[in-house]
Amino acid sequence: MIMKAFQARPLAHLIEAKREREAKSAKMTTNAKLKRIDSIWGSGHGVLCLQINHSVSDEEAFVREAALIEALRLENLTNIKGGEWRGSSKVWTLPMKAQFGTYQLQRALGVLKMEGFRPIKPEALPESSPFHAPKKHT
To answer: What is the pLDDT of residue 10?
Structure first.
């Protein structure tokens, strides 16, 4: 999955998966994102969370996310929809978008080479994120 993140949000999907997994929720079989995370954990591995862009504007974050989704192809991801091209990127040609997506993948590889693999397993996660508390049902 590819996503924009703010503060602790990079872990939000993993925290949600942990919570739903512990509750043996039906969402673990109906939600593709949660199902993929559960499959990784179920095989004894951790989920890799690679943060490659920091301190960028919201518009830039959307463009970078769109470029990565385009480069990796939506059908290979659990993202429900493609990214949002914003600002001047809306008029980029497909080759320009592909080139920028390739650049983003190269940046991600550079970060991965420097930081290495840090798999995240459910036991390493907090119960909830202070930035995205679970919704209360009334």
So the answer is: 72
Alpha helices, DSSP H, located in the chain: 12-22, 27-30, 32-42, 58-72, 94-115
Which alpha helices (DSSP H) does 73-119 contain, by range? 94-115
Q: How many CB atoms lie within 10 A of CB 100?
A: 20
Neighbour-count burial for 13-27, b at 16+ CB within 10 Å, e otherwise: bbbbbbbbbeeeeeb
List the chain domain ranges: 9-49, 50-123
State pLDDT tens for residues 25-40.
Answer: 999 999 999 999 999 9
- Global pTM reads 0.75
Asked if 6 contacts 56 with a C-beta cutoff of 8 angstroms, the reply is no
138 Cα distance to chain centroid: 30
